[in-house]
Amino acid sequence: GDSVTQMEGPVTLSEEAFLTINCTYTATGYPSLFWYVQYPGEGLQLLLKATKADDKGSNKGFEATYRKETTSFHLEKGSVQVSDSAVYFCALSLVGGADGLTFGKGTHLIIQP
Amino acid sequence: EPEVTQTPSHQVTQMGQEVILRCVPISNHLYFYWYRQILGQKVEFLVSFYNNEISEKSEIFDDQFSVERPDGSNFTLKIRSTKLEDSAMYFCAGQGLATGGINEQFFGPGTRLTVL
Questions:
Q1: Can you tell me the mean pLDDT for B86-107?
Q2: Mean pLDDT for each 10-residue chunk of chain A (113 residues)?
């Protein structure tokens, strides 16, 4: 079945550091890929998305590129802020379908001032 | 901007009791979902709902669970006889027609269910 694997957390960085959170996937079809963010005490918010190979999703300084050859969708940010502290979930869904999202386990990011 | 709402934000119940979690999706959405997140774990898909019937369900969604869209606006998840292990955050989500091949789901803020 479909699955998403994320790097284990927590990830602790200093403010202004470079961030990478790795995400790889397995899928039976051609999925859309997503990053969701969950701030403390809140629900899931879509951070960015990509629908086909080599697409780059971006939002709030975060980027992720859909790499079909390596089945990856790594999340990056050049300079993190304390306010980026949250749990980040990589997820996939089959294009055009109404099936549920398959989430990774989430990576807890802690940014220290 | 339209948003998904869920009530209540927190529900405490005794083991064996029935609970109904409520969601109001965005009005022009067509597909509806329930997910749960046990504390500290990943978000898990429970069920999807389209055209007034279940279109897909996971292994978690057993006979104790049911979903309904009774009046065209609310979308409910019922747990018939709650167990301790049902304690989790439950998220509702909705999706419109896929645009440009991107089937984006919009999530509500969640209902925290605590079973004692």
A1: 82
A2: 88 96 92 92 88 94 96 97 96 75 93 96
Q: By the 8 A CB rule, do B11 and B113 touch? A: yes
Say which of A32, A42, A89 has its CB closest to residue B103: A32
Residue B99: strand pairing partners = B102
Length of chain A: 113
Distance CA(A58)–CA(A47), nearest Å, equals 8
Are the beta carbons of A100 and B104 separated by less than 8 Å? no
A73 CB-side CA count, 13 A:
31
Residue B25 forms contact with A (CB below 8 Å): no
What confidence score (pLDDT) does residue B103 get?
67
| C-alpha angle B39-A60-A7 in degrees, rounded to nearest 5 | 45
Query: Running DSSP on this structure, what letter comes out for residue B93?
Result: E
Q: Residue type for B44, please?
A: E
